[in-house]
Amino acid sequence: MPAHRDEWEQRLLEDPDLLGDMAFAIGRPFHVMYPERVGRNIDGFRAVFEQAGVDGAIFYGKKANKAACVVRACADHGAGVDVASVSELVAALANGVRGEDLVVTGPAKSPELLWLATRHGALIAVDEPGELDRLVELGSAVRVLLRVLPPGSDSRFGMTPAELDAAVNRADLGPIMLEGFSFHLSGYDPIPRSELAAALVDRCLAARARGHRARTISIGGGFAVDYVGVEAWQGFLAAAGPGRFHAGKSFDTYYPYHCDTPGPVMLAAVLDHAQLARRLRENGIRLAIEPGRALLDRAGSTVLRVQGVKIRTAQGHPYQLLTVDGTSLSLSEQWFDSEYLPDPVLWPTRPGAGTPACVGAATCLESDMLSWRRIPLPRAATIGDLLVYPNTAGYQMDSNESAFHGLPIPPKVVLRSTPDGRMRWRLDTGPL
């Protein structure tokens, strides 16, 4: 399943020296980040808001990737950041995002996080009524969203209708500034998001009648990414089964690696349904979104070196069992007992016969496989080759990484295009 590839990735793979020089200099697995693509992704969402005539706010879900260059791209392109810890908040400020452009999410926030967020004028998504009391004790005016438990959901996040009513009553007493409401939904269906947002318009109007500003509804993240073409995805699903994987491995679910309505297209569908865009315009309500993966689409790759090769046989057909110098913790779909399916690229390009291969990690764990699936490589891999896993910036690199076995955590490399057409790189050494 070859991944969709941007021009910057193609240039990196085709350059006879650049990728090899990076690997030589770093000497261990690493991630490549291309922040210019993050800026284009932000601009794509903003264009949808503008076309619909809707006041929109974009907050990057920072948990999707810790790289400092991503937050800097957000600052440069007018996006805010969604943070859930003191460390994330400090890193956002250090990379140029103003406090008023932060939204603080998560349950049962620490006193230190609430204090710092209040000091910088951040918007705070309140998860339960008692959090309002803790904010009042800080003695400063504070901007809040009330997080809604979606109807029929058993999520541990958000407030029931009765809890929302109690929270609004508490906000009436000040110094709470009720800015609106927020929610998060699982899955990638735009319709439930649109319908719940439309219902919250009425809650905003009711809060306004009580003197609150109530001009923002946040629908959270969950904007899908289109990793591979439809034919490749459908072909995989039709033939998926233990016979395609090392040791007869099987998985119950996969991320939807092909999506007809990814990112900004999904946002347009949200705004189109239930006349949501019209209702937002007529009532002067801003729609906020908190995408993580979708702002990182095609903005990074993960590079590992082959350091071992074995031959195994399945159903009478040989395949390579490769060992690389990293772990599956850099491909975090394994976190969900699933498989990261876009094909890695074998570098450098050389002639040879097509050879299937699975990819294991340099650890003592039988289960530590980066790719259980037998990937159709264009030639047999050899020790010293590089495997470049594409489009890993969103939730793959660094979500689960640890120094297991004492192996160092892969660093991030920032790649940029220069005005004279060159590509230059440096380590992402800014605040995390």
Walk me through the structure.
- By secondary structure, the protein is an alpha/beta fold.
- Helix content is 30%, strand content 22%.
- Helix 3 runs parallel beside helix 4.
- The longest helix has 20 residues, at 190-209.
- It starts with 6 loop residues before the first helix and ends in a 5-residue tail after the last strand.
- The mean pLDDT is 96.
Quick synopsis:
InterPro entries: Ala_racemase/Decarboxylase_C (IPR009006), De-COase2_N (IPR022644), Orn/DAP/Arg_de-COase (IPR000183), PLP-binding_barrel (IPR029066). The chain has twelve helices and 17 strands.
Write the layout of secondary structure elements.
Layout: H1 7-14, H2 18-26, E1 30-33, H3 35-52, E2 56-61, H4 68-76, E3 80-83, H5 86-94, E4 102-104, H6 111-119, E5 123-126, H7 129-137, E6 142-147, H8 161-171, E7 176-182, H9 190-209, E8 216-218, H10 230-239, H11 263-272, H12 276-282, E9 286-289, E10 300-314, E11 317-324, E12 345-347, E13 355-360, E14 369-377, E15 386-389, E16 412-417, E17 423-427
Parallel strand pairs: 1-16, 2-3, 2-9, 3-4, 4-5, 5-6, 6-7, 7-8, 8-9, 11-13
Antiparallel strand pairs: 1-10, 10-11, 10-15, 12-15, 13-14, 16-17
Helix pairs in contact: 3-4, 3-11, 7-8, 9-11
